[in-house]
Amino acid sequence: MSYRACGRSGVRLPAISLGLWHNFGGVDTFENVRAMLRRAFDFGITHFDLANNYGPPPGSAEENFGRALNLDLRAWRDEIIISTKAGYYMWPGPYGDGGSRKYLLASLDQSLRRMVLDYVDVFCSHRPDPDAPVEETMSALDHAVRSGKALYAGISNYDPDQTAAAVAILGSLGTPCLIHQMKYSMFVRRPEEGLFNRLQAAGIGAIAFSPLAQGLLTGRYLDGIPADSRAAKPDTFLKRRDVTEGRLKPVRLLNKIARRRGQSLAQMALAWVLRQPVMASALVGASRVEQIEECVAALNNIDFTDSELERIDEILGA
After folding, report:
1. Residue 215, SS3?
2. Rounded to whole angstroms, how far apart are CA atoms 48 and 83?
3. Residues 6 or more apart in contact with residue 26 via CB below 8 angstroms
4. CATH fold of the domain at 3-221+266-303
5. Which of 32, 65, 76, 185 is the most buried (most CB within 10 A)?
6. Half-sphere exposure (CA, 13 Å, Cβ side) for 222?
7. For strand 3-5 and strand 12-14, is the pairing parallel, antiparallel, or unpaired?
């Protein structure tokens, strides 16, 4: 595993981090959860990313992570970066969603109880809330750090202007923004339109979620939708209707480039994300140990020739 500086901070993140968005919840097999977490750590994946609502059901990914941590990894807590987030719907009523101080700090307390932790390493605002002043949201992150319940603050899903405002407020409070989690892949390139430049200038690390486009860039769908795939499940963001011939045509062309590079499509897609200088880590999901092994092997070849990048841009219509 290689480790990258997270912006201008002293934190170094593994080039590949493990996200627990799917396949780590209460509907999943706990022994498989344990096996994936153990294997990831053995490979040097020291960053595990969660959110209060990950499951399903919401909260169960944190519960399972806490159980697995206690059973297998507790002795190495000081070698692990644990991040969690709040901002999306979590419980009914007026205080279970959004960016209010009330919701964020209550949610953090709940997350700590679910994971049986005294603190998380990074606490993030999961999304900007149009109904809450950004000053309130950022002051909640600042309070989380000053109270010792989080070591660092971060944001996710903020556009360039929202990022600039949030970063300025956190800076004025004396709690710098460590990291920005954004959706970024070969199919989602919007962060290239100003966000990366903002992060680079501010000294904030980037971490890409969904770098494999919910599995479309893994090659699993080249010949249809497998019965055990994400698109075949009812409670995922990738739907059957998303796996169209129009979407699969560029996937097949990209797969040919990956083969010439001696990589799987997933490995090339991760290497492509990591080519960005500001990128501290690519956040991958997994349903099996073997998928984690494949993702880590992407680091064996993360360099591209100019002609490869040009051909990829042609395929993507960039």
Report:
1. helix
2. 6
3. 55, 56, 57, 60, 63, 64
4. TIM Barrel (3.20.20)
5. 65
6. 14
7. antiparallel
CB contact at 8 A, 246 and 215? no
Contact 95/102 with Cβ under 8 angstroms? yes
- What the block records as the tokens of 176 is 């710098």
Spacing of C-alpha 52 from chain mean position: 14
DSSP assignment letter at 43: T
Kindly state the helix (H) or strand (E) to which residue 307 belongs, with its residue range: helix 306-316
Beta bridge partners of 84: 123
Distance CA 42, CA 1 (A): 10
pLDDT tens readout for residues 228-252: 555 445 555 565 566 676 678 889 9
User: Is the dihedral angle over the CA atoms 218, 274, 85, 118 positive or is it negative?
Assistant: positive
Q: What is the pTM of this model?
A: 0.93
pLDDT digits (tens, 9 = 90+) for 28-85: 999 999 999 999 999 999 999 999 999 999 999 999 999 999 999 999 999 999 999 9
Contact in structure between 288 and 204 (CB atoms under 8 Å): no
Looking at residue 59, what is its pLDDT? 97
Q: Burial, 203: exposed, middle or buried (Cβ in 10 Å; 0-12, 13-18, 19+)? A: middle
User: Which amino acid does the sequence have at 176?
Assistant: P
Per-residue exposure over 17-50, b if at least 16 CB sit within 10 Å of its own CB, e if not:
bbbbbbbbbeebeeeebbbbbebbbebebbbbbb
What one-character-per-residue DSSP string does 237-285 give?
A: SS-GGG--HHHHHHHHHHHHHHHHTTS-HHHHHHHHHTTSTTEEEEEE-
Which residue positions in the chain have pLDDT lower than 70? 224-243, 245-246, 318
3-state DSSP: the chain helix, strand, coil percent, rounded to 5? 45, 15, 40
Q: In this predicted structure, what is the pLDDT of residue 234?
A: 57
Query: Where are the chain's structural domains?
Result: 3-221+266-303
Distance CA 25, CA 154 (A): 24
